[in-house]
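TICKET: design request
STATUS: open
ATTACHED STRUCTURE:
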């Protein structure tokens, strides 16, 4: 029997979506503001946009699109776009680890890899990709949604702790906190969608049982 999801603010998917948008916008604006205040050259600012903020710009497009009519209509295609984005993030993190082996890079890779696996095994459940790509037979389905979410919370918290230890300025500390909050809220967003899909499955089972009882 599916556990009831209580109506706390962190169980409101629309609110979580808005919070993620707000966090991403803050990260983009603050990082550029800090870069300008630190008198970085135009080249360095542009490089920062490409290396750090471009990832967030792509994610921002996804979450803003979810609030539109077209985004809701083509929700599954948007999810495919998000999975593609996180695939790129994960590959980039792999390359970063090979270039510079550090605890920060390893934790970042772990977060992106867990998020990617969580996304694939959640967002594709209600689509043709679920059986077409044999995702329904993946061993990662044995991991509960609670475990995925808890793992992301722990990894994001540990990464934040290390970032705060090694950070050299208040600007860096603020961005690190926002980065970790972003990971946590994205994890919550995926968690809530998994809850929604499980609730739909439960309703279908009840409908089949009621039809069988009538016969």
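STATUS: resolved
RESOLUTION: sequence designed for all positions
ATTACHED SEQUENCE:
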């Amino acid at each position: 029997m599916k556990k009831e999801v209580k109506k706390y603010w962190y169980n409101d998917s629309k609110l979580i979506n808005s919070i993620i948008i707000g966090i991403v916008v803050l990260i983009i604006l603050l990082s550029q503001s800090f870069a300008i205040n630190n008198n970085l050259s135009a080249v360095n600012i542009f490089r920062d946009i490409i290396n750090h903020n471009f990832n967030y710009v792509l994610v921002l497009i996804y979450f803003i699109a979810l609030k539109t009519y077209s985004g809701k209509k083509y929700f599954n295609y948007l999810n495919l776009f998000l999975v593609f984005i996180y695939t790129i993030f994960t590959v980039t993190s792999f390359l970063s680890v090979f270039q510079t082996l550090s605890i920060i890079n390893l934790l970042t890779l772990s977060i992106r890899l867990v998020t990617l696996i969580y996304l694939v095994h959640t967002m594709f459940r209600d689509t043709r990709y679920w059986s077409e790509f044999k995702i329904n037979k993946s061993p990662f389905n044995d991991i509960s949604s609670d475990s995925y979410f808890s793992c992301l919370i722990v990894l994001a918290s540990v990464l934040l702790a290390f970032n705060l230890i090694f950070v050299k300025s208040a600007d860096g500390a603020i961005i690190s906190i926002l980065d970790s909050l972003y990971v946590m809220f994205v994890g919550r967003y995926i968690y809530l969608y998994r809850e929604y899909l499980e609730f739909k499955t439960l309703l279908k089972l009840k409908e089949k049982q009621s039809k069988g009882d009538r016969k």
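CLOSING REMARK: The radius of gyration is 19 Å. The CA atoms of residues 2 and 52 lie 39 Å apart.
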